[in-house]
Amino acid sequence: MENALTVSAAPAGSGAMFDRIAPRYDFLNRVLSLGIDLSWRRRAARALGLDLAKANVVLDLATGTGDLALAIANLGSNVRVVGTDPSSGMLAIGRQKVARASLGDRVELRSGDAQAVEADAATYDGATIAFGIRNVPDRDLALREMRRVVRPGGRVVVLELGEPNVGILGPIARFHVRVLVPRIGALLSGAREYRYLQTSIAAFPPATEFAEKMRRAGLVDVTITPLTFGACTLYTGTVA
Asked: Does residue 173 lie in a domain region?
């Protein structure tokens, strides 16, 4: 359920909708985002603001094939990541990537639901979700769960796609998201579900509205950072 260019004709939040495109998911992410999605994830990892001199455990919800989990682990040798996702197909590919990176001792990927995190309160030093909150049926509940399992002072970081609207190149970026992405995705993947992408982005609330959801979930010091002409937005909030 992760992730930079996810789509679905199945009910939002189900793992089945990602199982169907899992084999070509990473390839399509790179093509459709022009490779920028990796830099977005690295930025999200840094936004956790971890003290790398200390041991840290981070939760990555909707981890998909594990790109953000790996980016977080690569921050430093004192960082451990637990990534969860409802899609067994995506997790299987993610575990292969973790093994290739020789990070199996610090990155654990397992099945899980963002709306019901299996962890005690204040278990983690930070929590992230990249391109997955859009597909969670109850976003408010997922945000409350992230706040619940992160210790006081830790950060919750959200990456999500949006309608580009920043700068003079905004119209070109909007054309890419609205027209080219769903058509190229469907052509390359053979999955008509990629046409769902633009619709789901358009239905996502404006950045200021989503930030208010984060505040209502109990997060403070919420920030909004548009990336790449607003094609992606980085949200951060701190657990009081």
From this structure: no
List pLDDT tens digits, range 6-50. 444 444 335 677 787 787 777 777 777 778 999 999 999 999 999
Ramachandran assignment for 95, one of left (phi > 0), alpha (psi -120 to 50 degrees), beta (any other): alpha
Here the CATH number for the domain that contains residue 91 is 3.40.50.150
Residue 24 lies in a domain: yes
Please state, in angstroms and rounded to a whole number, the distance separating the CA atoms of residues 18 and 88: 9
Q: Checking DSSP bridges between strand 150-161 and strand 232-239, what pairing results, if any?
A: antiparallel
Rg (C-alpha) for the chain, rounded Å, is 16
Domain count for the chain, please give it: 1
Mean per-residue pLDDT, 134-147: 95
Kindly give, in sequence order, each residue whose CB lies less than 8 Å from that of residue 121, ignoring residues fewer than 6 positions away: 148, 149
- Alpha helix (H) ranges present in 101-231? 139-149, 170-175, 181-189, 196-203, 207-216
Question: Domain for residue 198, yes or no?
Answer: no
Quote the crossing angle between the two packed helices 207-216 and 139-149, to the nearest 10°. 50
Q: Is 92 within a domain?
A: yes
Q: Tokens 């639901």 label which residue?
A: 113
Nearest to 197 by CA among 176, 207, 182: 182
What's the domain range around 54? 16-161+204-239
